[in-house]
Amino acid sequence: MGPFLPSLRVMQGFLMGMADIVPGVSGGTMAYVLGIYQTLINALRSFDMPILRLLMKGQFRAAISRPHWAFLVPLGMGMVMAIIFFTNVVSLPGLMRSDPEDVYGLFFGLIVGSLWLLAKDLGRINAGEWLLVLAGLAVAGGLFMLEPSRLPDTMPVMAGVGFLAVCVMLLPGVSGSYLLLVLGKYMLILDAIALMKWDVLAPFILGMLTGFIAFPRLVGHLLEYHYRKVVLVINGLLAGSLWAVWPYQQREYAMMNGHEKLVHTAPYIPDWNAFHLSVALFMLIGLAVVVAINAMAGKSSGKVA
Q1: In Å, how far from its chain's centre is CA 63?
Q2: Most distant CA pair in the chain, distance
Q3: I need a labelling partner for 260 at 20 to 30 A (CA). Which of 27, 35, 128, 293 fits?
Q4: Where are the alpha helices (DSSP H) in the chain?
Q5: pLDDT (tens digit, 9 = 90+) per residue, 93-124?
Q6: Chain centre to alpha carbon of residue 9
Q7: How far is CA 101 from CA 21, 105, 175, 179, 283, in A?
Q8: Are 235 and 133 a contacting pair, CB within 8 Å?
Q9: CA-based Rg of the chain, rounded to a whole angstrom?
């Protein structure tokens, strides 16, 4: 297998990092699209209590060897490379402002390709199982229709927001940044990061860390014992997310520290004359990318992983 699999992980991490930059898409969604979601969840679960016990006993080498570094390191490298590349070399936020239809067309194609491949893997779906798909679809649709709330900025609320944000970030089909918009905390968090407001950031980060510890264990347990049911619900969530990444949206921006930030979107169906050929091309590219990476992963491991 040689260096092929680590190189594949870097490529997968690169696409996950790219997805995290785009509002409406998440790294969890991209991990699922690329067929590595369960592997990612298991890798995050490897940061467990035995590590803490080993550290307390001074057994540092044993503690360091427990996490799944062979998976996480190249994946993390790819994510960091993507964030640096798409913020400093090619500005993805800038492209989203100048050519949002093409950018979202790419992710639309990625998700459609994933749903197609997953439908083939699942095989025949009975009537009861379709209810699980519809449940996921209803949750995604309901979230996208929510209006921004006005929660207070207290420490317990910010900790809860951080917890929910990281859970949603790891859940395919839903965007963590979109949840922050719904909870009315998107601009507050961006402002806190820019100005280093630790009275806001500290409880938010604490909530995120709690989510990183708890949520992978919950999802990992469900995938272990109820894999097909969980996958059906996730597919519904993923199908519902297509409305959020539909290329044609009415987008509203607000100024934040001298930069425009996306704060609201509303999808619409364009007239035939307004439909751009480039959008269809990027949709096809996205579909082709996920099919190609799926095939590469199958060759490297004997299955989608």
Answers
A1: 28
A2: 69
A3: 27
A4: 4-21, 27-33, 37-45, 49-56, 60-64, 69-84, 92-98, 100-122, 127-145, 155-170, 176-182, 186-195, 198-225, 227-241, 277-301
A5: 677 777 888 888 888 888 888 888 878 778 88
A6: 16
A7: 15, 6, 18, 22, 10
A8: yes
A9: 20
